[in-house]
């Protein structure tokens, strides 16, 4: 009997049970320093009815154990990662195991290597982390802990695990430890929210520009609210609308499945209604996404010098029932940008500024660096551009070397000025004048300048004209000849009469 007591004293000193099996594993790990609630063992063994389980949740890409941190049920310092708010855990007391008895510890130890997902339970609690921690005071016993939900931007990566309350204090093997700390691993979702732009046809002010926002909704047993918000610069874009909302399985939500809220300046928020949430709840994995397509009108800017890009952000938020979780935004470096530039046109003739009128089109050439025979595309972008004093400025033209949020060439690949009226004594341009607006490697688009030259009508050559200088001289000479002839006839008649 004495030998048996010594054996179980050693077993109790080992602390919590590590159970592994199909879909299960124990994680008893780290964070900072509470004073552990302990009690000195006495002849009756465990002499308290309750213990407290502290669940700590940190986002840590590499895993909590990689930096040599202990996972023995005590609280530790220096846990890497960011504390998570809104992670949800289900805590279930396993039936038929009384840890105040040696037989109960034997039963718990026998669960090593078994599938713990089917264990009978007698009670259930649910807790959510706040700033990385959730605590629950529970009766002494063996508990199965299951992560049932994560906030936006965080994956559920922890398999169910078993933990005993209490554990033997690993720093003093003669004491029970009634405060037990566990540290389930966590991982950030890869690209929890993505945003793309379709701006190839957003040529200038007044055109439509489209954005697509994809939000990965985390797995959770409780989904109370979901919102997806386009965060846009209201000085550059206006009149937000939603063209479609789809789920990851291809289901297109009906208008009654969501609402669009534009009360906050610079935000267009799609909020799922109860029917939309019902459709989302049944999806898992990669299908558990919400894809929103937004459309805006491009506004005219006040500046005609350097142009900063239209940079567009987005965010989403999930409420799992404990209040809205954190907002997850598109990282700065992944927010799509659209660039516009202004073009200054100077109209010249014989070295002087002259007046002319143009229409502006999109157009293409085979070799932009050596343009010839441009092909116009569609209707004019702008009509009646007149050079006053020989100059005019066309504002807010989409650059041709950056399209849909990345380096590329627009289709068509440039712009054309078509002269519709020229100055007096000057010839109209024989073909459209091709040019491009380029961003290059700059973060803004500098003012572009074009000089369009015209030549004189008929290439400057004079046409023969009745009443011109040559005809007049002939008439004068002819007149003189006729006058001379008349004078000769008069004199000749006089001589004849005298004779």
UniProtKB/TrEMBL annotation:
GO biological process, one term: carbohydrate metabolic process
UniProt xrefs under InterPro entries: Fim_isopep_form_D2_dom (IPR026466), FM1-like (IPR048052), GramPos_pilinD1_N (IPR032364), Ig-like_fold (IPR013783), LPXTG_anchor (IPR019931)
The keyword Secreted is assigned to this record: yes
Gene3D superfamilies in the record: 2.60.40.740, Immunoglobulins
Keyword Secreted: yes
Keywords: Cell wall, Peptidoglycan-anchor, Secreted, Signal
UniProt-listed PROSITE patterns: GRAM_POS_ANCHORING
Stated name of the protein: Fimbrial subunit type 1
Organism this protein belongs to: Corynebacterium pelargi
Organism placement in taxonomy: Bacteria, Bacillati, Actinomycetota, Actinomycetes, Mycobacteriales
């Amino acid at each position: 009997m004495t030998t048996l007591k010594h054996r179980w004293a050693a077993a109790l000193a080992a602390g919590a049970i590590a159970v592994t099996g199909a879909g299960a594993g124990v994680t008893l790990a780290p964070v900072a320093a509470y004073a552990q609630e302990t009690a000195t063992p006495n002849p009756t063994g465990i002499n308290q009815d309750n213990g407290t389980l502290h669940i700590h949740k940190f986002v840590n890409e590499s895993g909590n154990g990689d930096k040599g941190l202990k996972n023995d049920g005590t609280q530790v310092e220096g846990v890497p990662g960011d504390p998570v708010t809104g992670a949800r855990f289900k805590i279930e007391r396993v039936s038929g195991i009384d840890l105040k008895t040696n037989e109960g510890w034997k039963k718990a130890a026998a669960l090593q290597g078994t599938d713990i997902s089917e264990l009978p339970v007698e009670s259930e609690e649910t807790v959510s982390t706040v700033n990385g921690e959730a605590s629950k005071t529970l009766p002494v016993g063996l508990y199965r802990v299951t992560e049932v939900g994560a906030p936006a931007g965080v994956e559920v990566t922890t398999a169910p695990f078993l933990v005993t309350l209490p554990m033997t204090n690993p720093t003093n093997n003669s004491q029970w430890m009634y405060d037990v700390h566990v540290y389930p691993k966590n991982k950030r979702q890869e690209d929890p929210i993505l945003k793309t732009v379709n701006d190839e046809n957003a040529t200038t002010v007044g055109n439509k520009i489209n954005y697509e926002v994809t939000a990965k909704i985390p797995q959770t047993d409780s989904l109370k609210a979901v919102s997806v918000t386009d965060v846009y610069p209201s000085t550059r874009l206006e009149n937000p609308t939603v063209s479609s909302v789809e789920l990851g399985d291809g289901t297109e939500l009906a208008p009654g499945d969501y609402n669009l809220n534009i009360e906050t300046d610079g935000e267009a928020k799609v909020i799922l209604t109860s029917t939309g949430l019902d459709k989302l709840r049944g999806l898992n994995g990669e299908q558990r996404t919400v894809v929103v397509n937004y459309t805006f009108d491009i506004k005219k800017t006040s500046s005609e010098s350097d142009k900063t890009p239209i940079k567009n952000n987005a965010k989403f938020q999930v409420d799992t029932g404990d209040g809205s979780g954190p907002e997850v935004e598109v990282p700065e470096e992944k927010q799509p940008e659209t660039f516009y530039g202004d073009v200054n046109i100077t109209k010249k003739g014989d070295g002087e500024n002259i007046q002319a009128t143009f229409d502006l089109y999109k157009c293409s050439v085979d070799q932009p660096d050596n343009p010839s025979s441009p092909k116009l595309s569609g209707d004019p972008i702008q009509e009646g551009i007149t050079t006053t004093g020989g100059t005019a400025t066309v504002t807010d033209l989409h650059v041709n070397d950056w399209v849909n949020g990345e380096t590329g060439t627009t289709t068509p690949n440039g712009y054309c000025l078509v002269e519709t009226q020229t100055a007096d004594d000057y010839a109209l341009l024989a073909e459209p004048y091709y040019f491009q607006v380029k961003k290059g490697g700059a973060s803004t688009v500098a003012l572009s300048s074009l000089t369009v030259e015209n030549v004189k009508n008929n290439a400057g050559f004079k046409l023969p004209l009745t009443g011109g200088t040559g005809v007049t001289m002939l008439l004068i000479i002819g007149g003189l000849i006729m006058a001379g002839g008349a004078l000769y006839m008069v004199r000749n008649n006089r001589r004849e009469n005298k004779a």
